[in-house]
Design a protein that fits this description.
By secondary structure, the chain is an alpha+beta fold. About 20% of the residues lie in helices and about 25% in strands. It contains 11 helices and 29 strands. The strands form 7 sheets. Strands 14, 15, 16, 17 and 18 form a 5-stranded antiparallel beta sheet that branches. A 4-stranded antiparallel beta sheet has the order 1-29-28-27. The longest helix has about 30 residues, at about 1-30. It is elongated.
């Protein structure tokens, strides 16, 4: 009996194994006709969206070796796309912790993206318009990430809290004053702005009026320092970009006529003249869109509107160390930045034809001063670039209104890796309801109940307008022509203007002018002296005379001394 059961058990196991092999073979045949990623486990390599290098890098269809980028420590193997809108991304900022990204565009709007709170749908959680009808030109977080500076096409810069609440706004200058040193702010639209890396209470702004100003946001709205860009001619040269050195000892500024100038700061003050100046750094009448210091404050890069990127040594500032050409730049806000370790320089390129052109991310070696790699990002221009140290991710703001975040699953941390794994909440049928109008006939005036008259009177009494309540005494400064009581001056004015009109008898006040009008008539001259009728007054009656005697007696009794005999007054009464 036992032997029979064992034989049946072996047969069942053999049939199950055979069935399992058939299912596996059938599954392989089906999967052969589907994409390679279909049905595979959702590990880190498949959760992230891989960039199609064969479609982006060239027409030949040859792919790009991902290991090459990883050997160069470039986190560009994967990407996510944050859709801001349809206008060009003109400004980007990432807080120091790498949790919140700000994007500004030509549509005048700033959008906030929270990597920890976003899902795979990649939607912003807030948007704001700093200045109505003005382009966003620059956004920068302070060192702690609690505030950000916003530079728009308006002549006033604003500082907002992390949640987008305006906290400070610079003053605007008087455009009718010729010497801009004597006005309190800028008189033309702003172009760039920076925080002081060593002092969070100071900001630097550049403007098209040819000046740069330093503001102390902890004291007042008036600019603290005034810096003027020197030009070849006597005319004002618009300042297109500016920068603080990381140690806070230098300020760099670029002009539209192609000049590049550096000022020194000592003891918190800037010198009146530029210590170092190159008048022909870039071609005249082009926008030098960016000047950036390296972390050692010795190397400076400038991105010109003439299609070049120049590397400068601050110690030998007469000629550039290297000039990289073939980098078209069509936007006045194009960026060029250093990598977190300082071994690479990255910038973006522009193209005029979005359908057939290509916007590239160009990477240069700072040590060898050679071009290392060109990475095609999109068909539109790459305007803004940013490489965050903590996330090890590269952000590219493009002209098609999208911000592309490049990352590598093996080298990057947080940021895009947090939101790409989160699934959006599934919508349930219970989340939707039928919205209908609620008809409440008793709320119509026809069905309204008549209120109690006493309640209406009490309500009208409480209303100062219906009850015609008199004005209350002033407290503090005067408003609307009324004199306040907050200082000695108003007290003296009230004392001088004090009158006793209420205590005066109007009949006696008019009779006081009787003799004066008779001697010197003002309204009726001698021509009416003999023609006017004679005034006849009514004679007093006995009752009136008696009332006057009683009135005099009452006054006498009221003014009697304390020890007077009441019998004498009683007899007289």
């Amino acid at each position: 009996m036992l032997a029979k059961l064992e034989v049946e058990k072996e047969k069942k196991e053999a049939e199950a194994a055979k069935r399992k092999e058939e299912i596996a073979q059938t599954t392989q045949e089906i999967m052969a006709g589907l994409p390679t990623e279909f049905g595979m486990k959702k590990d880190d390599k498949l959760v992230h969206k891989k960039r199609n290098r064969s479609a982006l890098e060239g027409q030949n269809g040859n792919g790009v070796d991902v290991n090459l980028y990883r050997q160069m420590n470039l986190p560009v193997t994967c990407e996510i796309v944050l859709a801001h809108g349809t206008k060009t991304i003109s400004a980007m900022a990432l807080d120091p912790k790498g949790g919140r990204l700000l994007t500004g565009s030509y549509d005048y709007i700033i959008k906030m993206w929270d990597f920890a709170g976003m899902t795979s749908t990649l939607q912003s959680f807030r948007e704001m318009e700093p200045e109505e009808g003005h382009l966003i030109k620059q956004i920068r977080y302070n060192r702690k990430g609690g505030k950000f500076l916003c530079i728009t096409g308006y002549r006033c810069a604003s500082i907002f809290t992390r949640d987008g609440v305006r906290e400070y706004k610079t003053n605007r200058g008087d455009m009718y004053i010729h010497d801009l040193q004597h006005t309190v702010g800028h008189v033309a639209s702003l172009t760039d702005g920076h925080w002081n890396p060593k002092d969070e209470t100071e900001i630097l702004t550049a403007s098209e009026d040819g000046t740069m100003r330093i503001w102390d946001i902890s004291v007042e709205r008036r600019s603290k320092e005034y810096i003027k860009l020197k030009s070849r001619t006597a005319r004002r040269t618009p300042v297109t970009s500016c920068a603080f050195s990381p140690n806070g000892s230098m300020i760099a500024g670029a002009g539209r006529l192609g000049s590049l100038q550096i000022w020194e700061r000592k003891a918190g003050r800037t010198g009146p003249r530029a210590k170092k100046r190159v008048m022909n750094a870039h071609e005249p009448q082009t926008e030098t869109s960016c000047v950036t210091f390296a972390s050692d404050s010795r190397t400076l890069i400038s991105r010109g509107g003439d299609g070049t990127l120049k590397v400068w040594d601050v110690r030998k500032f007469k000629k550039p160390l290297k000039v990289f050409k073939g980098l078209p730049n069509l936007y006045p806000t194009s960026d060029a930045v250093f990598s977190p370790k300082g071994d690479y320089i990255i910038t973006g390129t522009s193209n005029r034809e979005e359908k057939t052109g290509k916007g590239e991310l160009v990477i240069f070696s700072r040590k060898d001063l050679k071009e290392m790699q060109r990475i095609r990002i999109s068909q539109s221009s790459v305007v803004r670039v940013m490489w965050n140290r903590r996330l090890n991710q590269i952000m590219c703001g493009c002209a098609d209104g999208a911000t592309r975040v490049l990352y590598d699953p093996n080298m990057s941390k947080n940021g895009a890796l947090l939101c790409i794994k989160k699934k959006a909440k599934k919508k349930s049928a219970m989340d939707f309801g039928v919205f209908q109008h609620i008809q409440n006939p008793h709320a119509l005036p026809l069905f309204a109940e008549t209120q109690n008259p006493k309640r209406l009177r009490v309500k009208a009494r409480a209303d100062p307008i219906q009850s015609k309540k008199p004005l209350e005494p002033m407290k503090g400064e005067g408003v609307g022509g009324r004199i306040g009581v907050h200082n000695l001056t108003t007290h003296l004015l009230q004392a001088i203007a004090k009158t006793n009109v209420r205590q005066e008898d109007p009949r006696e006040a008019l009779l006081a002018y009787d003799e004066k009008t008779k001697n010197d008539p003002m309204f009726f001259g001698n021509a009416y002296k003999h023609t006017q009728p004679k005034q006849i007054y009514a004679e007093g009656t006995e009752e009136e005379e008696e009332n006057e005697e009683v009135k005099k007696l009452k006054e006498k009794i009221s003014s009697a001394p304390l020890g007077a005999d009441p019998e004498s007054y009683r007899k007289e009464w």
